[in-house]
Structure to design on (82 residues):
């Protein structure tokens, strides 16, 4: 079941990729995990490799902190169907 969270003006939810890896969908953009540090999870845009997008965001507890770098692309319908 999909649970959509709200953090300030950002809405986000988690999905599983076709490989079973967690993905974050925030404001329509998909991210995969870059690394974790303490209780913070650093996410990187799915288009990092394919499109060279440097956008990131950090999830800290139930808060989501979008990075300062904007996406270099529009919202793709690349959210995996689970
Ligand atoms: Zn991006």
């Amino acid at each position: 079941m999909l649970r959509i969270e709200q953090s300030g003006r950002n809405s986000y939810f988690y999905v599983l990729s076709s490989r079973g890896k967690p993905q974050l969908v925030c404001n329509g953009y998909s991210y995969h995990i870059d690394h974790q540090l303490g209780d913070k999870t650093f996410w990187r845009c799915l288009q990092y490799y394919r499109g060279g997008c440097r956008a990131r965001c950090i999830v800290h507890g139930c808060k989501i902190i979008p990075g300062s770098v904007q996406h270099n692309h529009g919202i793709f319908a690349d959210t995996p169907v689970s």
User: Anything to note?
Assistant: The mean pLDDT is 88. The pocket of zinc ion is lined by residues 29, 45, 47, 53, 55, 71, 73 (CB under 6 Å). Residues 47-50 form the longest helix (4 residues). The longest strand covers residues 29-37.
